[in-house]
Amino acid sequence: QVQLVESGGGLVQPGGSLRLSCAASGSIFSIYAMGWYRQAPGKQRELVARITSGGSTNYVDSVKGRFTISRDNAKNTVYLQMNSLKPEDTAVYYCYAALGIFTITKGDYWGQGTQVTVSS
Length: 120
Description:
The protein is mainly beta and 120 residues long. Helix content is 0%, strand content 52%. The N and C termini lie far apart (41 Å).
């Protein structure tokens, strides 16, 4: 019932910035929270950031102060602004949507993923 399309990944040098976008369509008013996971080769998938329908945000400690998640309700889009990027931020980033508090971490719908590579 919800479709998520991601964009904005790419190659950037350390210290650079990228903005990821996740556009939602379908039953968008049923979404309780949206966020981003990332998965690097050989590492476990980790939750990077999320934002609820009420505007509450959460971030993994390693990105606090560098990443900002936000929503544009008119465009049904969630953004992840990533500043001061580090090589360890290199991963595939997956947008997700949760329909309720019980799936706020697991997610119910997922985007296709977008590659972020931070390298000199």
